[in-house]
Amino acid sequence: MTPTIKQIAKKANVSIATVSRALNNESSVTEETRVKILSIANELNYKPNIIARNLVKKTSYAIGLILPDISDEFFTDIIRGVDEITYQNNYYTMVASSHKHRTLTDSIVPFFNTGLVGGIILLISSFTDEIQKILRQSKVPVVLIGGGKQTQEYDTVTIDNYQGAFNATEYLIKKKKFTKIAHITGPQENDDTFLRKKGFMDACAKNGITIKKSFIEEGDFSRESGYHNFIKLYGLSQKPEAIFAANDMMALGCYDAASYLNVKIPDDIALVGFDDIFVSQYLNPGLTTVRVQIEKVGKTAASILVNRLNGSNGKARSLVKIPTELIIRESC
Fold it and tell me: What CA–CA distance (Å, rounded) separates 312 from 175?
């Protein structure tokens, strides 16, 4: 049987109202009483009824987290970071994602129309006119996670995509002395793709490296696209010495293709990824990659939204850029 506030009140020998105030951290409750009530609630494994709580408070203690996909390890770390902060602040996280049967827009609209969530964290690959229109029609606070175009209308958390790609490319040129470097991009419409490709191209231009058109292949951030594009690049008459894959999932596909072709990394061709997902360090050889503090991205976005819901952010919008770090392993 699920424990109730009434049971806590009886065991603590206080009123139901006192229990409610203690659980909501109201200042009218003494510290001694609060500690006693929280201890009993923990002992009984009490979990508040979110729907009843929303009705009483006339607000929502649920936060919506909307992602393009949840099958990738990158998104799992985002969820973990968001949920840790929401849990600490007595909010609940509701996750939705797009997939082959539902677009990102289809995922967004129900959150705004039901009134179930008090705020939304939205990870977007591209800040399209359609998404902007939907957001402007809603009064629900929104925090964006996105690496591309920024706007002063919304609190935003970004990854330093450009500098991460620039640094990785310069490492291949300056430290490893490569001059024939290929790049597997993400999908063309993606803002992260644009910035990572620009970082790659600018680093090459700065260091006098000419990039052949055949050395740029478009992927879609999936393992499969890394596999197929590696085969294309390694099949060229003039092969690249190194490949910079725009994310680690595509780099994993490169490992698969190298194994299939009996190509040795890094002896035959070097490889660099982007994200530093968990599995990257356990590949053989370990993947040199650009580390993104993925969980920190989620934590930062959730902290901004919780503060916005609590009224402690002020009117100014936050723009937080999470730095990246090049992690050197054995793939190049």
Answer: 47
Burial environment of residue 42 by CB neighbours within 10 A (0 to 12, 13 to 18, 19 or more): exposed
Q: Report d(CA 195, CA 190) in Å as an integer.
A: 9
Residue in this structure with the two tokens 């925090």, named with its chain if needed? 143
For the chain, the average pLDDT equals 86
Q: What angle do the packed helices 5-12 and 16-23 form, to 10 degrees? A: 110
245-282, pLDDT tens digit by residue? 999 999 999 999 999 999 999 999 999 999 999 899 99
Convert the chain into a string of H (helix), E (strand) and C (coil): CCCCHHHHHHHHCCCHHHHHHHHCCCCCCCHHHHHHHHHHHHHCCCCCCHHHHHHHHCCCCEEEEEECCCCCHHHHHHHHHHHHHHHHCCCEEEEEECECCECHHHHHHHHHHHCCCCEEEEECCCCCHHHHHHHHCCCCCEEEECCCCCCCCCEEEEECHHHHHHHHHHHHHHHCCCCCEEEEECCCCCHHHHHHHHHHHHHHHHCCCCCCHHHEEECCCCHHHHHHHHHHHHCCCCCCCEEEECCHHHHHHHHHHHHHHCCCCCCCCEEEEEECCHHHHHCCCCCEEEEECHHHHHHHHHHHHHHHHCCCCCCCCCEEEECEEEECCCCC
Read off the pLDDT of each residue in 224-242 and give the average, rounded to a whole number.
Answer: 96
Beta partners for 66? Answer: 96, 122
CATH H-level superfamily of 5-47: lambda repressor-like DNA-binding domains (1.10.260.40)
Query: In terms of CATH, what superfamily is 59-160+294-323?
Result: Response regulator (3.40.50.2300)
Closest CA to 93 of 114, 72, 118: 118
Task: Tell me which architecture the domain covering 161-293 has in CATH.
Answer: 3-Layer(aba) Sandwich (3.40)
Q: What is the pTM of this model?
A: 0.76
